[in-house]
Amino acid sequence: MLNIRSFNLGPLQTNAYLLTGADPAKGIIIDPGMNPAALVRSIEGMEIEAILLTHAHFDHMGGVDEIRKLKKCPVYLHALESEWLTSAKLNGSLLWPDVAPPLTTDPAEYDLAEGQVLKLIGHTFRVFHTPGHSPGSVSFLCGDDLFSGDVLFKLGVGRTDLPGGRERDLFDSLRGKLYKLDEGVKVYPGHGSRTTIGFERVRNPYVTM
Ligand SMILES: [Zn+2]
Ligand SMILES: [Zn+2]
Prior knowledge:
Layout: E1 3-9, E2 14-20, E3 26-30, H1 37-42, E4 47-52, H2 58-61, H3 64-71, E5 75-78, E6 110-112, E7 117-120, E8 123-129, E9 138-142, E10 145-149, E11 152-153, E12 156-157, H4 167-176, E13 186-189, E14 195-196, H5 197-203
Parallel strand pairs: 3-4, 4-5, 5-6, 10-13
Antiparallel strand pairs: 1-2, 2-3, 7-8, 8-9, 9-10, 11-12, 13-14
The chain binds zinc ion (2 copies).
Cofactor: Zn(2+)
InterPro entries: MBL_Glyoxalase_II, Metallo-B-lactamas, RibonucZ/Hydroxyglut_hydro
Function: Counteracts the endogenous Pycsar antiviral defense system. Phosphodiesterase that enables metal-dependent hydrolysis of host cyclic nucleotide Pycsar defense signals such as cCMP and cUMP.
């Protein structure tokens, strides 16, 4: 069974997720955001097998540098955003100087792509390429748990007016992929509280099935 802890990090209240399986000493992190001190404290003594990024906006990658150096763990990111970790312009941190300093880190060790299956912490994670909010946005499905980044929120969706965003892609990602999952799938978004596919399919004010 997958154990999920969430951390609300940084000025944009980004959700970072720390996941563990049967062995509580081994974990993975999805989206280590800015100011990750609370998360860093929680992984003391743990082995971190990987950092998975739903996309490379600064509020999701702000903690990558610190945790990667500390744990020597590889980072996974969709190929369409492979330049974004090294560019404060592309990851958006240059655009909001009052919110974030310019943030950069080394490129990701591994590319992600649609349909890829990752075996980590004794679990299987399926990768869905879900662009719209950003070109390389992905969602991760593990059993009945979906990590949707900034694509799908509780009663909301990600903005599509940032560089590389596209409303048509967002609709296709939701109707063509995420809304086709079982209604009971729990959704852990990049911001805000948890929801389910069944709830959003019917109640989401921006995109319903
Ligand atoms: Zn974003
Ligand atoms: Zn975000």
